[in-house]
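Now for our target.
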Amino acid sequence: MQIDQERDPTGRSPSERIETIQIPKRLPVFPLPNVVFFPKTYLPLHVFEPRYRRMVADTTMGDRCIAMALLKEGWESDYYGNPAIYSTLCVGRIMSVQPLPDGRSNILLQGLERCEVEREHFDKPYREATIRIKPRTTEEGLTADVRHALIDILSRYLQTREDSAAWQGFFRDEVSDEVLVNTLSTYLECTPLEKQFLLEADGLRQRARRLNDLIQFMLHDRHGAIGWE
C-alpha cells in the first residue's frame, strides 16, 4: 500500500489555526483500506502507484485538495479498479511534496473538513467525487465534564502502555477540544472501522463520547474483560 502513517515528520503539532481554504465541489479521492483521516490532524503518505502519482501531480497544479476515503470490506478483489468506499470522508490539503528520483513522492496532508460523497466520477486514472461539506454543529466544543471524563479514561488507559509519557502534551488546557479528540481518534489503536465510526459522529461531542466508549473497551479488553461496561 502507499501509506506510511506517522506523526508529522516536520515536528509540528496539529494546527489550531487552519487558514480558510475554498474547498472545491469536485475533488480527487484517495481510498485506502487502513486509514481514516480527521480534520486538524496531519497525515504523511508515500505515493507510488501510477494513478496516484498522476493525482498528486494534477492536484499540486490546482487547489491542492484531496479527500481521503476508507475502502469497504471486500476491496481486495477490485483494488486496482474502483472498489466501494464509505461515503463520509475528510478533505485534506497537500502541504508539502517531496519528489523522489523514481517518480514516487512523499506528501503531507493537513486535515480540513469532513464531507459526504454525492457522486463519484471515474473518467480519470484516479477516482474523483462531487462532495458536500458536512456542516459543523452549533455545539462543537466539549463541556468541562465530557473533556474531564475523556482525559480521565485516557490517563487510565495510558498507564498500561510504555509510551505514556509521549501523550502528556494532550492534557494541556491550551489544546483545543477538536485537536484533542481528533488527534486521539487518529493515533489510538482503534481498528479502521472504529475510526470510521468516530469520523461519522454527528458533532464533536458525540465523537468524544464514542471515543470514551472505545477507550473503555480497549482498557477492559487489555485487562481481560469481555464486552462493554
Remarks:
- Residues 1-18, 225-229 have pLDDT under 50 and may be disordered.
- The beta strands are 26-32, 42-47, 65-70, 88-99, 105-121, 128-133.
